[in-house]
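User: Can you help me understand a structure? I only have the sequence.
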Amino acid sequence: MAIDLVKLLETAAEQVSQQSLKETVDALWATESRFSFSAFQATARHALARLREWGGPESAEAQPIKIRGRSFELPADGRSMHGDWKAPLGWNCGSARLEIHDPLTDRGRVLGDFKKQPLQVVAWSGPTPPEGVIAPVVRIETADELEARAKDVRGRIVFTPADPRLFKKRLAELGVAGVVTSYSPEARRLPKACGWIGGWSDDPQGVAFIDGDAPLPAMVISPEQGVELEILMEREQVRLKLLVDAHYSETTVPVVCGYIDAALQEEVMAVAHAFAPGANANISGSAVVLESLHALQEATRSGALPPIRRGVRGLLTYERSGIVGFGLQNPGILRRIHAAIDWTGVGRYNEQSGNILCHYEAPHAGPTVADTLLALLMEAWLPRALPHLQFRLDRPYAPFDNATSDPRMGVPCPAVAGYDRLRHTSEDTPKDLSLPALHAFATISVAYLHFLASATASEALWLAQQTIRRFGRRIEDLGSRYALRLGEDGADRPALLAQANDHLMYARSICEAAVMSSKRFMLHEERQKGHLALLKLLRHVRRLIELEKRRLKELADCEAGELPVPALLAEFASLRPYRKFAGPPAYGNIAPAERSHLSPAASNAPLHAAVYWSEGELTFGQIVRRVSYEFDGDFTADLLAHFRFMADRDMIRWLQPGEPIPKPPKPEKTDGSMNEPEPAADEPAEEMTAEAGEEAAEEK
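Assistant: Let's start by predicting it. Here is the structure, written out as tokens:
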């Protein structure tokens, strides 16, 4: 069957409106320009108002195809756990001001004002007394310098050009009156812009603020202002007046949900993070998700696109932990979702912004044909719509708002993300957003969601064929890489051939799992026949793998040896890790001092991938090899350190050879899943493994 993706994209592009995208950006920016939990609720109301405006009135005369909107609430009390992530504590800021008090000639000179630039207040800054704090300034740049001058900082305001989060806890312990920083991730390129400090945890690896963290007052000035302050401090003693009116509270953070219903109890989903400043870093993805629902509704209502068979859901969540909390609180919803897409940082593409957009695959523990569809759509549309855009396809998994890719959550979620030079600075505003870029990615989002929401066996089999083509190129490239290594002088050919064979078989297993995932997009009555058709398609992959193995064996001119076991693994190589939690690890309930020797868990993609494989079936040695293949590197030492740490804290269990796998706990039922019915079984009754099924198909 021939599938015309370009025609689908052209139709989607006609339905996506740049004016609608601009209105959505402006509506969200009205509250997203400042960071506070009251602003989050206002943002949720604005987003829901857009959805309800598009959906029309709730009446019998309303269109059958319509957007529904509602919000879920997650705790923000600084104590509750979302999987392994701890919820942030609620925080609001009413006003803040930083000015020079001495020398007298500069008294009253304003360095920072929350009302003029909200990002000049560190997120979760503690309050000062109502009259403010007036104190001398001490310049500290490093943790070592802080220790050397520990007696000089008590009762003072510490100014640092460095990121103060690296030694914030120690500053609080030493009794400083407040903190002023000129840190910015783009200090050289944007000296007049303030950097955004988006967390004030006592943990240098932390990303928010939780119950028990020190409420230290803190504000931000621009790098240029920082240089001016340093020059003034060199001439004479400087005292600053710092006033912050802020308070903490136990509250909630919203998850905005838009939904278009369909006949099947199955869904596809688009997700983006909201509830943080940044027009590109934050609002661009939210606008794409909302406009995707709007355009899909209008296209299916008008007949421009065929009706969808599966529901389409759009989520705006608090960054990272929000999607974990939503998924774990609503397992019934996740069981209906067959694939998702995560959008972030897609609103700029010119050379000045330095934005390179990347497609990040779902982790290999849960591969999906949806990755193939996304790559094909980007290849077909981006050179045409944004001819100067730099973009990369098929990058390995990276953690964004795609935690549902954890096989225990069961929703593979490719991501498209970009990081530009304005990110986390006061210059990341709507004035520099590109409406053509937003339109292009909203077009791709509409095409992606509609294709998967309307697919039947014919589209699913086509996607499977394209996935085999995609993996076929990878397998051939992989064989070529090992062929070059086998030709090197002094190569240990038996060991290298063993590794090549193992790597090729790994590629085959991931390809087979991705191809078989296409069954999720067949109708239930099609899946039995479709299963056998997929097994026939996979014969090509098996033959290609065997061809590459024979070719490499001829080049090596020897038999394969034994796979080497890294000395670091020792007795752990044969043990099988079984995890006791769902979602990516973050160590949210473990004291920072206990994990300070480890790399940060929350952003560690190879660690997440290894955890996703840890279901008691594979040995730790096998998992380490798989992660090295997925990310093309050696992560043995880091993974071993983290897994030993998790085992010591009863987060994983080491299973001995022959020990049975424990039964996973049943998911807790919650009342937050909209009381929607459970889905029907996804798989055909007569399920078969790939190899056994192929043999049966060949016999027939």
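Now, to help you interpret it: Residues 457-486 form the longest helix (30 residues). The chain has four domains: 5-86+252-454, 90-248, 457-556, 570-655. Let me know which part you'd like to focus on.
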